DNA sequence: TATATTTGACCCGA
DNA sequence: TCGGGTCAAATATA
């Protein structure tokens, strides 16, 4: 997009490491797929003295591979356009960053019925990352909900939320601040993942020259759930958004649980069912991920994985405890 | 009329 | 206590 990324052109060892990890992970996934294609009893690994690795082992290896990859990427991406990418999600966030859910403003010190301004639960930690861009626009529809003069800052900060906040419970927000040294440029901080599915902005299959650059450009954490891509566009996000907003508070509350789960996916040690549904959807959603092709499809692997997670989450599938939960992205 | 933006008030975390 | 983040009434716009 606007800038390049250190690892897209930089230390080849980093790239090699990332590629190696993903190739390894894909191989494991391929093995897992073949296991899953066998008759059902074989998937019950306790009943099958197969010499090949158990599904459990394979999944652990796959997850380790992705974990390794992510750690390499995050350590490599902290300079450059993506200034900071915090993939750690606090558990507290899962239930407190919906300003209107549960007791926010209701059971707390109740303001006058007319004026509930300021009644919200401030999100504490969530996925955040920042970028510097000459445009505030990206491929999501944002609605401005506030502007604030910031101390020691020449320009005010604008606050945007996803226009799908109310109809789909999407909690993604972003903050836009014009840079002092270069007023043409904006520092844009994205907070939270998009959990919305925007029909106007279908998931993009990543096919680009440099899969890693494509990944970071097109798949920032907000598009992990398969709904997003980043693209330069006309400069309009500061002043408008086009997607209609349905003001229906109860609907958002109803959706909050779903988005909580989505937000904690992959980091919640107790939600292993999501991980399993993810892997089930490897074959349900995109068989091509298993292709042994190498090279430009690495970005596809990553983006497809994220598409799978979204699909799985919406299916609400659950393997129901064939595998006890001792694997996840964090503790492999 | 419906939707988006502006803006002052309010709340929370440091 | 203060700065920053969010809410929601008022206002603007299509």
Automatic annotation (TrEMBL):
Matching InterPro entries: WRKY_dom (IPR003657), WRKY_dom_sf (IPR036576), WRKY_plant (IPR044810)
Residue span(s) of domain WRKY: 137-199
Polar residues: bias regions: 237-247
Basic and acidic residues bias locations: 92-118
One Gene Ontology cellular component: nucleus
Disordered, as annotated region: 91-123, 224-252
SUPFAM superfamilies xref list: WRKY DNA-binding domain
Pfam families the record matches: WRKY
Record's keyword terms, sorted: DNA-binding, Nucleus, Transcription, Transcription regulation
Protein name: WRKY domain-containing protein
Species of the source: Lithocarpus litseifolius
Lineage: Eukaryota, Viridiplantae, Streptophyta, Embryophyta, Tracheophyta
């Amino acid at each position: 997009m606007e800038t390049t990324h250190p690892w897209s052109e930089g230390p080849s060892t980093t790239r090699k490491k990332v590629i190696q990890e993903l190739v390894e992970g894909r191989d494991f996934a391929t093995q897992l797929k073949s296991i899953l294609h066998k008759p059902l009893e074989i998937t019950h690994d306790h009943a099958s003295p197969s010499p090949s690795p158990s599904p459990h082992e394979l999944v652990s290896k796959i997850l380790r591979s992705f974990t390794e990859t992510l750690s390499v990427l995050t350590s490599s991406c902290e300079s450059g356009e993506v200034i900071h990418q915090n993939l750690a999600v606090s558990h507290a966030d899962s239930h407190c960053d919906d300003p209107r859910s549960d007791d926010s403003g209701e059971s707390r010190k109740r303001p006058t019925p007319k004026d509930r301004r300021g009644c919200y639960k401030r999100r504490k930690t969530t996925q955040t990352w920042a970028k510097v861009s000459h445009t505030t626009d990206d491929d999501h529809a944002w609605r401005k909900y506030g502007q604030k003069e910031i101390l020691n800052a020449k320009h005010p900060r604008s606050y945007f939320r996803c226009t799908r906040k109310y109809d789909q419970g999407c909690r993604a927000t972003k903050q836009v601040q014009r840079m002092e040294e270069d007023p043409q440029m904006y520092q844009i901080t994205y907070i939270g993942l998009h959990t919305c599915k925007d029909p106007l902005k279908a998931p993009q299959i990543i096919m680009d020259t440099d899969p890693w650059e494509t990944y970071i450009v097109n798949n920032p954490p907000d598009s992990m759930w398969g709904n997003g891509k980043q693209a330069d566009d006309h400069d309009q996000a500061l002043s408008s958004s086009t997607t209609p907003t349905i003001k229906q508070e109860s609907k958002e509350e109803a959706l909050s649980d779903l988005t909580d789960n989505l937000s904690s996916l992959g980091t919640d040690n107790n939600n292993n069912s999501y991980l399993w549904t993810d892997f089930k959807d490897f074959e349900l959603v995109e068989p091509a991920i298993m292709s042994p092709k190498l090279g430009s499809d690495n970005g596809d692997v990553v983006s497809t994985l994220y598409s799978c997670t979204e699909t799985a989450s919406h299916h609400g599938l659950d393997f129901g405890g064939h595998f006890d939960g001792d694997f996840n992205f964090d503790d492999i």
